[in-house]
Amino acid sequence: MNQLNELDYGTPAKTATQHANSLVTLEIDGVNVEVAAGTSVMRAAVEAGINVPKLCATDSLEPFGSCRLCLVEIDGRKGYPASCTTPCEPGMKVRTQTPKLADIRRGVMELYISDHPLDCLTCPTNGNCELQDMAGVTGLREVRYGYEGENHLKMKKDESNPYFTYDPSKCIVCNRCVRACEETQGTFALTIDGRGFESRVSAGQMQDFMDSECVSCGACVQACPTATLTEKTVIMLGQAEHSAITTCAYCGVGCSFKAEMKGNQVVRMVPHKDGQANHGHSCVKGRFAWGYATHKDRITKPMIRSKITDPWREVSWDEALAYAAGEFRRIQAKYGKDSIGGITSSRCTNEETYLVQKLVRTAFGNNNVDTCARVCHSPTGYGLKQTLGESAGTQTFDSVMQADVIMVIGANPVAAHPVFASQMKRRLRQGAQLIVVDPRTTEMVKSPHVQAAYHLKLRPGTNVALITALAHVILSEGLEKPDFVAERCDQKSYADWKEFVLRPENSPEAMAEVTGVPAEQLRGAARLYASAANGAIYYGLGVTEHAQGSTMVIGIANLAMATGNVGREGVGVNPLRGQNNVQGSCDMGSFPHELPGYRHVSDSTVRGEFEQVWGVTLSPEPGLRIPNMFDAALDGSFMGLYCEGEDIVQSDPNTQHVTAAMAAMECIVVQDLFLNETAKYAHVFLPGSSFLEKDGTFTNAERRISRVRKVMPAKAGKSDWEVTVALSNALGYPMNYSHPSQIMDEIAALTPTFHGVSYAKLEKAGSLQWPCNDEAPQGTPIMHIGQFVRGKGKFINTQYFATDEKVTLKFPLILTTGRILSQYNVGAQTRRTENVEWHSEDRLEIHPHDAEDRGIKDDDWVGIESRAGQTVLRATVTERVQPGVVYTTFHFPESGANVITTDNSDWATNCPEYKVTAVQVLPVSQPSAWQKQFSRFTEQQLKLLQGQPGHATEAAVTK
Question: Which of 84, 207, 506, 748 is exposed most, by the fewest CB atoms within 10 A?
Fold first, then answer.
């Protein structure tokens, strides 16, 4: 799919719904054109195949009318109006090409070029520069104004940003970058400084880009029509020659990108303007942080070793796979069929994940398969399945543009889902109101032109008390939607829930002591949400990663059903998925109790369908969850693990418990890009492939299935799906696929919600949202229209139980965790890019009162101790956290954030309670004992990677 140059219509499209009159007809250069009312003359011309010269206009931004190149003549009007800012009117007669217009345009271009470097042949954007193009289009042949007078040609470049350069000498002050920062991104980091001849783009108040509020989303670079803002990769590598559309491998937004290439080398990643999840926008990770795919740390040769104290030995693919298969068979012969299992990846494709769970159920002969969704969104699957009938979010991202009140609970989209956050902030700037439920003052609470109407700053661990109190206000004040409930919901469960919610102990006043949220604030937020024409709830890991995570998801669904906020645009229950394919990994049957499509393994009819296609008898007994695997390893009954694309040693809670379990196993097979923390405990390393090296699909948080396309050969010779196929064949269960499209065909045949999905249909539609089947052949953007998937919506009581993790005199503070914009998950990818310039270490945020009580100053080293362990971080003293609460991220393994998180977990799904850990924080002068051991162990493992003896002992690796 070579789409290097996309047509730019100059101004955004208008639809009939945006205007009372749907269509207007006019004449442009003698051609009759019919367009939606409100369409600009410029866009109408382009739609008719008539290109009007332009510089300040682009179809991702509202018209500005500053460059004066797009002037036209209109019968009956004086002067020469700008076609970008002039709306079409019925019967209008427009001329875009006349001698007078040509003369004006040449004059305008002459003025631009008179203060512009004439270095086109050596300019990095030569051949892809709109200013250069317009000089040709207008027929500019000479510039009468010399450089003898004042000019900007010697202005200093700003090279501070690691990904792009700012050359003010080439700026034409078209304002596109400033408008992109405002309209598209919503950061308002750029402005025009000075007036008249002195006008220049400024980041902040004439700061370097890196010192300003710029978040490096790339919107300004994308919008720039000259070489003023240029990617450093383009400067270094030159212009791309071809491109392919693919899907970002970072968060659950699922942005579509053009990988612009020279041969097999990526020159840059450009957000695809037709991407249905991102509409041509991006963030710093997807836009720029793809260099990890070719990083020197990549391991591209299979390796084996007998013990983790042995040096690694590079071997052929055949030897590595035969060794892994032999070890798994030996372990099963010694310990039983259930002594091995697998973990699928939320970073791999649907097809690859499907094959791993298939391998476990067929070649291993058990259901011991799980995925990282266990530790993030498994409560979403359980809670939404029980109440609404489907384990996924209800809306499209675009639905937020119809919301009147938005409630964000336990999520910080600005940091974790930035492209969607930009869209949400756009809606808030249009007038929607915002409620933020978070113990921390996140960027969502207040940012340029956005401020939450309510910030319910609850105590960590009290989510369920708060959601029930919100429901209490809605029901006690008659703010529910009785007609919706009567028509759409189960009446008995509603009556039971109503009786429970209206108990006095669930009132905001009674719960204020539990949550720390004043009753009047809570009442005001409840009234605002319930009285909205369209109320939408978006939530993240601050909801799910609790001992009552599933209960809280149920509480959110209860609230949406009671207020009628399900089943149409602008409403819904919307989980914000953390990783690129966490939704897909769940859909593909990665849980030990469910086959693809969320169907229980105990259902004999369902099993029969798979058995017929797979040619084996499947076990009806659910397998082990990830925490059960660890416990069984320490018990001596789970001895082998196939782990594809997950770093469970860094990402799972209670690290020392995890590493002890890993060290107890006899064969761990890791399939990954780097020697991550889990691979340090492995016996077989199978090189993985990055998203740039594979074909397949990802499914984002809105159930959108999008194509991933291979743009470079797999550095290790095999894509991930080919490795799993080869391992299965080595184990004696034949898999015969020649392309991932065949795997998707099998998924579609066996999974009701995917029956209508195929690569051919994805090519045509761009993407599809499941369910996609005979009932919904074009997919399902909005779920639960007319009726819930389960039939009648089910209300379930949400009794609040305080977590077992309580503050004490020994551990008086509560630690909660989260993410930051520049880093991603365990950091294996982003730490190997220039993103470390923004965030090079995990920090502990602590409130000034708590810091002063302990004698802690900004940048001090502090020890954080819980009942699970101790680590040391540097402190950031800030009022973003409330007194009694501390906060950190988990992107750097040496930080040991999960050394101190406990193995408390959700009652229904075992999702760990990362968000509530009782700790003490005190000043220290040296790393923790765990960090010292971590450094020694890492040094040993790196020596073993190089084939040198590491002098490790068996005892050292289990501590």
Answer: 207
